[in-house]
Specification:
Layout (H helix, E strand, L loop, with lengths): L4 E5 L8 H11 L3 E7 L14 E2 L2 E2 L1 E3 L10 E5 L3 H8 L10 E8 L11 H11 L4 E6 L7 H15 L7 E7 L10 E3 L8 E9 L2 E8 L9 H6 L3 E7 L37 E4 L2 E4 L2
Parallel strand pairs: 1-2, 1-7, 2-6, 7-8, 8-9, 10-13
Antiparallel strand pairs: 3-4, 5-6, 9-13, 11-12, 14-15
Helix pairs in contact: 1-4, 2-3
Length: 288
């Protein structure tokens, strides 16, 4: 067994019982754990690096998540989950984590809606800093079968521990059913539609009228949404944005852009200036 130091976070906030489910799975595997989760709910935060910053310092609050095993170090952070993962990669919460577990999210993260998920965003942000991770969600907003999520997480973690890091993260969705009713864990691709759709109604100069409803689409038997609604837990590999090495975009000279070409004798080597970015253990200083 490989021993790891694991950061556990989420986007539902430090008071969510889903944190303890991930912690128990990590402890079952013999790992050490640090819990650092948003002090308040940050659902839909995606990979946002927003936080409550005062004089360059991110606020922390004492935390006692429900159901948390004894002697697990926990802290609430007034920041989005992706910022927590970002700070952890620089040692803000002690030892840099070897892996990030995010969730268990209240509600599934399937299809294109994963783009907006703070649960997934935390793990993708960690991966962009060289840290592997697993995001875990359960279908219900008030789960009755946390034990199923615990068993699936522990199983996935056992197989993820020795996987060579390649910037891909694992997105797990678990139906809220008793363990004996779970059909198994199956690989799945993202469904071709998101979890919700918006309807824009008549507003005024100060408001936009928006209503949301569940989005439906054609049945896709190999998709995460379809399999999840048919009793399977699903596993999907995701990756942060990457460039296309086979791009077909063209290069255009300044005159094609309506720009007067500069003096060819100007120094070609001088790069455009960039804003400074300084990071220490608990602070993000951004000059914009």
């Amino acid at each position: 067994m490989v021993h790891m130091h694991i950061l556990v976070t989420n986007d539902d906030g430090i008071s969510s019982p889903g944190l303890a489910v991930l912690v128990r799975a990590a402890l079952d595997r013999g790992h050490t754990v640090k819990v650092a989760a948003p002090a308040e709910e940050y659902s839909g935060a995606s990979s946002s690096l927003s936080g409550e910053e005062i004089d360059g310092r991110i606020a922390l609050v004492a935390a006692a998540p429900p159901g948390m095993p004894r002697d697990v170090d926990c802290v609430g952070v007034k920041a989005a989950p992706a910022l927590i993962a970002f700070l952890a990669s620089y040692g803000a919460f002690g030892q840099r984590p070897d892996l990030v577990l995010s969730g268990v999210n209240l509600g599934a993260n399937t299809g294109k809606a994963t783009l907006h998920s703070g649960t997934v965003g935390a793990v993708l942000t960690a991966a962009s800093h060289g840290i592997p991770g697993i995001a875990v969600s359960i279908t219900s907003g008030a789960p009755q079968h946390w034990d199923t999520a615990h068993l699936v997480t522990r199983f996935a973690l056992e197989r993820w521990e020795t996987r060579p890091f390649d910037e891909w993260i694992l997105n797990i969705n678990v139906p809220d059913v008793a363990p004996e009713r779970l059909r198994g864990l199956k690989p799945a691709r993202l469904a071709g539609f998101g979890a919700v759709q918006a309807q824009i109604g008549r507003g005024d100069e100060k408001h936009i009228a928006v209503t949301y409803s569940a989005e439906t689409g054609p049945e896709e038997p190999d998709s995460d949404h379809y399999l999840l609604t048919h009793g399977w837990a699903t596993a999907t590999l995701l990756r942060a944005p990457v460039d296309d090495p086979h791009q077909t975009l063209r290069t255009f000279a300044p005159d094609a852009l309506g720009i007067t070409p500069r003096d060819p004798s100007a120094d070609d080597a001088a790069p455009a200036p960039l804003d400074d970015v300084t990071v220490d253990a608990a602070t993000v200083m951004r000059r914009t």
